Amino acid sequence: MNIKIRRDIIDEIESPILLAAWPGMGNVGLGAMNYIRRELEAVPFAEVEMSEYFTPEAIVVEEGVAKFPDLPSHIFSYVRDPGLIIYESEAQVAGPGGIALINQILDLAEQLKVETIYTGAAFAMPISHREPV
């Protein structure tokens, strides 16, 4: 897995805020991030290549031929003013792949001198609200 930088923005943005969203229950966080990106006309500048860590959970049948679905996208966009980096992921990745993904996102945030990170998602777990924390 690696982050493919399509456009070097390090000199275009100063001390940005990172907004990151993954799909969750109802896709509320991802929907909000999609709205912010569109309204602010954020420009894509990087994407994460996830092929080695993402395992499809289904197949797609097209014209009688089974194939794996396309990999979910993991896209970074930016807005110069206000300084925002927007990360949108079409899938939550658990386990070692998820840890590697987060580390790469944080490495990129550090390179871009991000000062604050806000995230939005829900990750359903088979636990009760009555279990002690």
How far apart the termini lie comes to 33 Å
Round the mean pLDDT to the nearest integer and report it.
Answer: 89
Strand content: 25-35%
- Biggest sheet: strands side by side, in what order? 1-3-6-7-2-8
Order of helices and strands: EEHEEEEEHE
Helical residues, percent: 10-25%
- The number of helical elements comes to 2
> How large, in whole angstroms, is the Cα Rg?
16 Å
Broad shape: globular
Tell me which oligomeric state these chains represent: single chain
| Sheet with most strands | 6 strands, mixed
Quick one: how many beta strands? Answer: 8
Low-confidence stretches: none
- The class by helix and strand makeup works out as alpha/beta
Highlighted features:
133 residues, alpha/beta, six-stranded mixed beta sheet, 2 helices, 22% helix
Q: What's the topology here?
A:
Blueprint: E1 2-5, E2 17-21, H1 28-39, E3 43-49, E4 60-62, E5 65-67, E6 74-79, E7 84-89, H2 95-111, E8 116-120
Parallel strand pairs: 2-7, 2-8
Antiparallel strand pairs: 1-3, 3-6, 4-5, 6-7
Q: Short description, anyone?
A:
The chain has 133 residues and is α/β, with parallel strands linked by helices. The chain has two helices and eight strands; from the N terminus they run ββαβββββαβ. The protein starts with a strand and ends in a 13-residue tail after the last strand.
